[in-house]
Amino acid sequence: MVKRIRESDEGFSLVELLLVLALLGLVLSLGFTAYALGTKMYSRSADQAMVQQQERYLIEFLPRELRYAYDVELFASLEEVPVLEDSQTILYSDTRGVWQKEAGSDARLVLAAEQAAGDIVFRRQEGTGTLVVGYRVALNRRSPAADYKEVPVRLFNSELTEGASVDQWAGVIRYTK
Predict the structure, then answer these.
(1) 4-15, pLDDT tens digit by residue?
(2) Which of 63, 64, 98, 140 is in the most buried spot, having the most CB atoms within 10 Å?
């Protein structure tokens, strides 16, 4: 006895096949859209977490480094800084990150600008002995100077030299530890 696999000889119509393919395409496109949205949100949150981590590092590093400094001077650019004497240090930032250079040694990278750009500037608060450190950490360097966040650092061992203007940000700070 021959066993038949199908009870009837009727197949699927072209309309039924097209309907199944259309539904399958719709489900797959919704799935890929959800996947793309999820990866985009993950990437954005990872970038935000990295920026926040670098910002936290700067907020902790700068006051710790500068609070007990003395002979503090601000300079508009790195070219204006005279040769460093013993125990003097400078802090500055450029396109590669935030740098610290001590007398007699090479500059070391404090905060690399690999994924996010870090930038610092300085100014003095008139009559208070407080150094205001402006910083920004962003995924790009196109953010305007108004986006700087400020960290006031009370200098315990010195007053700032009067050479730097109160109203302008300086790009380099020289100090002695």
Answers:
(1) 565 666 788 889
(2) 98
Q: How many domains does the chain have?
A: 1
The pLDDT confidence band at residue 166, using thresholds 50, 70 and 90, is very low
Specify if 156 maps to a domain. Answer: yes
| 3-state DSSP assignment of residue 153 | strand
Cα–Cα nearest to 174, from 75, 106, 27: 75
Q: Are strands 130-138 and 117-125 parallel, antiparallel or unpaired?
A: antiparallel
Query: Lowest mean pLDDT: which of 7-21, 34-48, 68-82, 158-172?
Result: 158-172
Strand segments, DSSP code E, in the chain are 70-75, 88-94, 97-102, 108-112, 117-125, 130-138, 149-154, 172-176
Look up the domain containing 64 and give its range. Answer: 45-176
Query: Which among 66, 162, 173, 61 is positioned nearest to 122, based on CA atoms?
Result: 173
Place of tokens 């870090």: 118
Q: What is the pTM of this model?
A: 0.68
| 36 close to 134: Cβ distance less than 8 angstroms | no
